[in-house]
Amino acid sequence: MSPPASTPVRDRLRIAIQKSGRLAEPARALLASCGLSWRESRDRLFCYGESLPVDLLLVRDDDIPGLIADGVCDLGVVGRNVLLEQGGGRVGNGAAPAFREWRALGFGGCRLALAVPDAWDWQGPEQLTGKRIATSYPALLSQWLAGQGIAAEVVLLSGSVEIAPRLGQAEAICDLVSSGATLTANQLKPVMTLLESEAVLAGPVETLDAARGELAELLLRRLDGALRIRHSKLLLFQASRRVLPDLLPLLPDAEAPTVMQLDGADDLALQALCHGAVTWQRLEDLKRAGARGLMVLPVEGMLA
Ligand SMILES: Nc1ncnc2c1ncn2[C@@H]1O[C@H](COP(=O)(O)OP(=O)(O)OP(=O)(O)O)[C@@H](O)[C@H]1O
Ligand SMILES: O=P(O)(O)OC[C@H]1O[C@H](OP(=O)(O)OP(=O)(O)O)[C@H](O)[C@@H]1O
Ligand SMILES: [Mg+2]
After folding, report:
1. How many helices (H) and strands (E) does the chain have?
2. Where does the Histidine biosynthesis HisG C-terminal domain lie (predicted)?
3. I need a labelling partner for 27 at 20 to 30 A (CA). Which of 68, 157, 168, 225 fits?
4. Is the domain defined by 110-197 classed in CATH 3.40.190.10?
């Protein structure tokens, strides 16, 4: 996308993140783990990138897709729910897609679900025909209803959607669910999942210009490394060669372990990068299978 004539060309990359809210801190922490650091402006709405020419813009999450579409920022961290809702809304209005998901980031997990009063005997989506459904996600709900071939009325609310059935504004709702506590507190039950969501790195559909494109590539490489090792641990231990066939099946999530021979012909030192949880239970299983001197180390960084 070429910037409007009045927009000066930028050679610094600009990333929008939520100013405050669920995604604010994890987004910042993830970018910091990619080696980015910033100096904050006094109004705390803009952070100037110090370690790399990558600046942060602190905004409401709902504004992030539009800022990317307008070229005001290059990338953004936002819920998939918001990105797809706004994308659906734009396409519904005849606009071309301007932003897309570049990476799933593994935090901010929730789902967009359809919920009905506990008392309903839920038989299936056709029960929604002619009903009013309250939601803050009209585009995603309308798409889903159209896909199911159901004619229902979409009632738009910007928040506190779960209370709508009790207020008589709607018979059902479609909203984000995480623990399910808000639904339960409002005597509602989830019956369909429309979307599994998490925080994503969003970027433009079109490629960025050379300078910012290179910065974005660098950031993506670091991000992929950071995401890959997020739950990884380095496992060090020793074992006899003959128990290796018993140990390896206990490490299904490990990259091919490094095996070093120790002085005694039968003695090995092993080093395995495990991408799944290394629990106490797992360590005890490995010990039982013949591993000795087990040690679990955190992984600070990785570049493939
Ligand atoms: N209950 C939840 N559990 C986990 N993640 C959630 C939950 N609710 C929302 N999210 C995710 O976090 C994102 C941000 O939620 P938050 O409540 O902070 O947004 P907001 O109130 O719209 O903030 P803003 O003030 O920036 O507009 C949501 O779009 C969604 O992707
Ligand atoms: O399943 P749960 O864990 O209960 O979470 C779901 C609730 O969380 C979000 O609301 P939030 O707390 O952000 O309030 P808001 O919608 O008024 O911003 C969402 O809109 C649901 O209401
Ligand atoms: Mg918001």
Report:
1. 9, 16
2. 231-300
3. 157
4. yes
Residue nearest to atom 19 of ligand 1 (CA): 21
The pTM is what?
Answer: 0.88
Contact 176, 190 (CB under 8 A): no
Q: Please, what CATH class does the domain formed by 233-297 belong to? A: alpha beta
What residues contact 214, with CB distance under 8 A and at least 6 apart?
Answer: none
Question: Which residue is closest in CA terms to ligand 1's atom 29?
Answer: 79
Closest approach atom of ligand 2 to CA 178 = 1
Per-residue pLDDT of the chain (304 residues; tens, 9 = 90+): 455 555 567 889 999 999 999 999 999 999 999 999 999 877 789 999 999 999 999 999 999 999 999 999 999 999 999 999 999 988 888 888 899 999 999 999 999 999 999 999 999 999 999 999 999 999 999 999 999 999 999 999 999 999 999 999 999 999 999 999 999 999 999 999 999 999 999 999 998 998 899 999 999 999 999 998 888 999 999 999 999 999 999 999 998 889 998 877 789 999 999 988 899 999 999 999 999 999 999 998 877 6
Neighbours of ion ligand 3 (CB under 5 A): 61-62
Task: Of 241, 201, 244, give the one whose Cα is nearest residue 65.
Answer: 201
Complex confidence, ipTM:
0.95
- In this structure, the chain runs to a length of 304
